[in-house]
Design goal:
The protein contains 4 helices and no strands. It is an all-alpha fold. It has a single domain (2-103), classed as Helix Hairpins, CATH 1.10.287. The radius of gyration is 19 Å and the shape is extended. The mean pLDDT is 95.
Amino acid sequence: MEKLQNYYRSFEKEMGYNRFDENSFQANQTFLLFIHMLLTTEVAEVAEEFRSMFDLSEKYLSEGYSDVEAMEMAKESIREDLGKELADCLAYILKLANYFEYDLETELYSKLEEIKRTRKKY
């Protein structure tokens, strides 16, 4: 994950992204609101792909395919577009992680361990 974060950081620099006055409250606020808007838009697009998948699976069911066949065919039909939307989400998550100087790999492992500990309590 560190490698991915570093790659994204280099990509942003190469593309000329993140050019704002980091010492300006207004510039930071605008940046964060913009990234929030973009990330939520991409998450909505992931949800839209799921809706398409469910609609397609219903169509395939009505055509006589089994539940499993219908779902597999619908999954395959959205596979490429869903991958692009997930990559968009990941890009904005990386952007935020880099902005806040998080090590996402450490954060993820920590969260998974927290879930294990919480789960063991019940």
